[in-house]
Amino acid sequence: MKSGGAAAAFAIVGAPAILRAADTVKVGLSIPITGLQAILGETLLNCYKLAAAELNAANGIGGRQVELIIEDNQTTTKGSIDKARKLINEDKVDVIMGTIISPERSATLSVTSKAKKLFFYPTNFEGGECNRYFVATGPIPMQQVDPMMPWVAENLGKTIYVMASDYAWPQKMTEAITAAYEKAGGKIIGADYYPFGTTDFGPAFQKIKSLKPDVVWSMVVGNDAVTQLKQYRSFDIKQPLIAPLDEVFNKDALPPGVAAGTYAPQPYWMALDNPVNKKFISSFREKFGQEKMVNGIGEAGYNGLHLYALAAEKAGSLKDDDVLAALPSIEFDAPQGKIRVDATNNHTLCHSYVGKAAADGIGYEIAKDFGTIAPVTPYCKV
Q1: What is the DSSP letter of 89?
Q2: Torsion sign over Cα 312, 33, 289, 365
Q3: Through-space distance between the first and last CA atoms of the chain, rounded to whole angstroms
Q4: Closest of 241, 266, 257 to residue 40, by C-alpha
Q5: Boundaries of each Leucine-binding protein domain copy (predicted)?
Q6: How do residues 235-287 score in pLDDT, each as one tens digit?
Q7: Rounded Cα distance, 330 and 327, in Å
Q8: What is the Cα–Cα distance from 181 to 160, expressed in whole angstroms?
Q9: At what angle do helices 38-57 and 222-234 cross, to 10 degrees?
């Protein structure tokens, strides 16, 4: 009996931390369920739910079920800070994931970085933020913009006018667009930024008619993008439009056909013809409805939870530093293609595609595939 008791005690003490911990792996989600980006928040949340369901139907993470603790950050800075504090201090989550626009992300990171808590961010972002406990599963400008600009100059035109929402992502994207486009022989002939809640984009459209750019690049986001795109069509502007649109936004937020013919650089499109993506879409629709669309932000969230699970299992631990140490050594066969996290900066090697919206204004065809682009981050070394 003594021998058996000692063996049992050794088994408990010697087991990996992931097996000794609580019954579930707590994943805290900070999602804009209300506010400016609620249009996209539902899909992001559903992609996390799909990833959790897939993991739980198998072995969970290290034999433990995944528990999602969901908080609405209301697309606000205060909401993001409050929810991050609650998830860490009250819910004792193992990791935080989510947020969409820059103010949500920066506010969340201000909390997670001090707490040394892992934070996986799924959205296209402007770069510039660097923290050991911050993992970006969406692309930065050099992964979206740099490969695309020679293609734009060759296929769409040599001059661009930019109109955008007034916050960090469009501002930094414009800097990247300007540098890469000039290198490709093009020129930015104007750029104007609009506060959230703008209802009249007429001045921008008048400027377009005056400047006559070859291409218009819009980075107006969220509910404001609905207003802007409706007005864009009513002004009968003929120039090709590049905009941060996707299948979810086009179907759920825009009138039919409004997005037809627009272009967008993204790491993921539903049109990608590979078995993993077909299964991803099929599983998503079986769970949430056959008419539902999915997008790059949602796919990057889905990827992030799977990457975390693979790293935690390899580490045999849920400790933040242990998961981080294992993360660069694993690869995930994602719907966009195989991805992994770069050890030097915690940014993901993403694919880069240009999509062109079909005549129905919802779906996209792949206009150009630039392959996998490694994240180059002079601002970040972890």
Answers
A1: I
A2: negative
A3: 50
A4: 266
A5: 24-359
A6: 989 999 999 999 999 999 999 999 999 999 999 999 999 999 999 999 999 99
A7: 6
A8: 9
A9: 130
